[in-house]
Amino acid sequence: MQRVPSGRILFVLLVLLFGSSLAGAHGVAEGDARFMAQSSGAQLAPYLYLGAKHMATGYDHLLFLVGVIFFLYRMKDVGLYVTLFAVGHSTTLLYGVLSGAHVNPYLVDAVIGLSVVYKALDNLGAYKVWFGVQPDTRAAVLVFGFFHGFGLATKLQDLALPREGLVANILAFNVGVEIGQVLALGAILIAMDAWRRSHAFARQAFAANVALMAAGFVLVGYQLAGYFTQT
Q1: pTM for the whole structure
Q2: How far is CA 121 from CA 18, 157, 211, in A?
Q3: Res 227: pLDDT
Q4: CA gyration radius for the chain?
């Protein structure tokens, strides 16, 4: 059976993750936003679906997760890091929406872009070379998970969600987010495993992480431009 040309798998993956409009990184589709703003009472199934849909199409989350799992080969390690991210993401998502705590969405999304840059540099071994130390990746994934959750919380806050059934709906949305994360991560792992089996993986891993870092900087630049030009 003919192998997929080496290096193209991750390139295609990055294009798929980054190919939609930048404004949609943490956004909620217009029709979905209208439903959420107008729905009354507990709507568990729709919110479950919307949460899964958000994560499956949230390329900023997925770019970060690609960086996190890039050099993880054991499923228990993948499970550990993804769980840490999920804990951080869920905590600030629930806290931000239910408490009303608000942060500037452009700034928090800029930090999310930096999380992609950070993990790409980590994969490249930059911190060991520059500073002589290796940061605790587990702590970094948890902390950046907090920012990813706040990023989504700011978008949901803008919808002025009805208070009736809000707790149940947000819990269902959060469960949906985690389901979507598992599904998307499964597809990413399949693509990564196929690429890792090629002889070119070790040579092309450097270029792939440079591309990942560049995507993170684009996200940062876009969000900072929005922050400084907002009215």
Answers
A1: 0.85
A2: 19, 32, 11
A3: 92
A4: 18
